């Protein structure tokens, strides 16, 4: 009996100890509601953020997270390739793909060169202070090696073209290298950028035809240069206050409050160049409809532009991808329409 009582006492003490332990323990952690799953994003910025940490500075150096500039470099190439297509045919997709790869590489190389020249300036401007070179994420030597890799790959793309196009493409490198210096010596660096960025308007035609038809290529090229003066002047208005402080020049500072008048003049010159190029290669109604749509888009941009709001300048700048795509679609449809006209002309000859 005594033994049984002793066991009961020990059991009671154990239960009391367990109860005290449970009382002192923290309450169980409640899981927060997870909510709906985060949707997958395939934007360029998201892809760069998801890349390995060591790779990200190089991707940002070549502006892969901001593809608007790559589109603006690529689209004049597509115009020229499209205009060079045979009547009734779509543009050559292999050539379009080659030029797409070249645009990514050469835009990346241009941005790398620009940041190497401007890293001291970029540190003083809020919008550019986070760029990899300015922020110290990579060194100048690493950037130089990376630039060599990009140019080597771009050369591989160029060597896929005919000899005329290889020489013509190589001739653009001087513009790519010297453009960043222009903002130090002239208020018209956007003009030099336009000469470089629209080289594809010459190169695309020669890649298809073997040489340039200057009556088509030259007006198309000059139209592209005028287009660059429009969108890059808008872009430059984002930084005009910082540019004044650090001594950098731009058309935004040159035109100042007269910007809209200048942009209107450049837009008219662009439309005239497009019309001349179209007439010299027998373009049809869809092409001129696209040119009219381009004119309407540019007019809306200029009319609604607020040059003192950087966010509006950026929005207008990026919308120019739509301008380029509109024209490319018009060129493709115009070529298909041209093929139908050719068939109608051939039918009476066959019946006679």
TrEMBL record:
EC id: 2.5.1.39
For this UniProt record, the keywords arranged alphabetically read as follows: Isoprene biosynthesis, Membrane, Mitochondrion, Mitochondrion inner membrane, Transferase, Transmembrane, Transmembrane helix, Ubiquinone biosynthesis
Which Gene3D superfamilies does the entry mention? Answer: UbiA prenyltransferase
Q: Catalysed reaction(s)?
A: all-trans-decaprenyl diphosphate + 4-hydroxybenzoate = 4-hydroxy-3-(all-trans-decaprenyl)benzoate + diphosphate; an all-trans-polyprenyl diphosphate + 4-hydroxybenzoate = a 4-hydroxy-3-(all-trans-polyprenyl)benzoate + diphosphate; all-trans-nonaprenyl diphosphate + 4-hydroxybenzoate = 4-hydroxy-3-(all-trans-nonaprenyl)benzoate + diphosphate
The UniProt GO MF terms for this protein read: 4-hydroxybenzoate polyprenyltransferase activity
Q: Which Pfam families match?
A: UbiA (PF01040)
> Which chain regions cross the lipid bilayer?
151-179, 191-208, 214-231, 262-279
Pathway in which this enzyme or protein is active: Cofactor biosynthesis; ubiquinone biosynthesis
**Sorted alphabetically, which InterPro entries does this protein's record hold?**
HB_polyprenyltransferase-like, Prenyltransferase, UbiA_prenyltransferase, UbiA_prenylTrfase_CS, UbiA_sf
**What do the Gene Ontology cellular component annotations say?**
mitochondrial inner membrane
Its domain of life reads Eukaryota
Where in the cell is the protein located?
Membrane; Mitochondrion inner membrane
Question: Which Gene Ontology BP terms does the record give?
Answer: isoprenoid biosynthetic process; ubiquinone biosynthetic process
Q: Identify the CDD domains for this entry.
A: PT_UbiA_COQ2
Q: Which cofactor does it need?
A: Mg(2+)
Keyword Ribonucleoprotein carried by entry: no
Q: How does it sit in the membrane?
A: Multi-pass membrane protein
- Similarity section: Belongs to the UbiA prenyltransferase family.
- What is the purpose of this protein? Catalyzes the prenylation of para-hydroxybenzoate (PHB) with an all-trans polyprenyl group. Mediates the second step in the final reaction sequence of coenzyme Q (CoQ) biosynthesis, which is the condensation of the polyisoprenoid side chain with PHB, generating the first membrane-bound Q intermediate.
- Record-given protein name: 4-hydroxybenzoate polyprenyltransferase, mitochondrial
Source organism of this protein record: Dromaius novaehollandiae (Emu)
Lineage of the species this protein comes from: Eukaryota, Metazoa, Chordata, Craniata, Vertebrata
Q: Which gene encodes it?
A: COQ2
């Amino acid at each position: 009996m005594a033994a049984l009582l002793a066991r009961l006492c020990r059991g009671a003490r154990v239960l009391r100890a367990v109860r005290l332990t449970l009382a002192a323990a923290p309450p169980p952690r409640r899981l927060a509601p997870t909510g709906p799953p985060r949707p997958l994003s395939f934007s360029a910025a998201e892809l760069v953020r998801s890349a390995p940490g060591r790779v990200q500075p190089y991707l940002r150096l070549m502006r892969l997270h901001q593809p608007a500039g790559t589109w603006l470099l690529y689209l004049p190439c597509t115009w020229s390739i499209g205009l060079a297509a045979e009547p009734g045919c779509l543009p050559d997709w292999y050539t379009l793909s080659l030029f797409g790869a070249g645009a990514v590489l050469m835009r990346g190389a241009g941005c790398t060169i620009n940041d190497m020249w401007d890293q001291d300036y970029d540190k003083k401007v809020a919008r550019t202070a986070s760029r990899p070179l300015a922020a110290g994420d990579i060194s100048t030597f690493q950037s130089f090696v990376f630039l060599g890799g990009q140019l080597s790959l771009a050369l591989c793309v160029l060597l896929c073209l005919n000899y005329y196009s290889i020489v013509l493409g190589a001739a653009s490198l001087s513009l790519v290298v010297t453009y960043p210096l222009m903002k130090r010596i002239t208020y018209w660096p956007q003009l030099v950028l336009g000469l470089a960025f629209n080289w594809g308007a010459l190169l695309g035609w020669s890649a298809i035809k073997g040489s340039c038809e200057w009556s088509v290529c030259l007006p198309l090229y000059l139209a592209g240069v005028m287009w660059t003066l429009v969108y890059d002047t808008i872009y430059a208005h984002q930084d005009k206050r910082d540019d004044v402080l650090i001594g950098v020049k731009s058309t935004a500072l040159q035109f100042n409050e007269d910007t809209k008048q200048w942009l209107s003049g450049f837009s008219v010159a662009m439309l005239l160049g497009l019309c001349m190029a179209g007439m010299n290669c027998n373009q049809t109604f869809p092409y001129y409809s696209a040119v009219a749509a381009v004119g309407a888009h540019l007019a809306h941009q200029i009319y609604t532009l607020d040059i003192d709001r950087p966010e509006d300048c950026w929005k207008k700048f990026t919308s120019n991808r739509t301008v380029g795509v509109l024209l490319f679609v018009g060129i493709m449809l115009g070529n298909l329409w041209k093929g139908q006209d050719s068939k109608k002309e051939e039918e009476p000859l066959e019946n006679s």
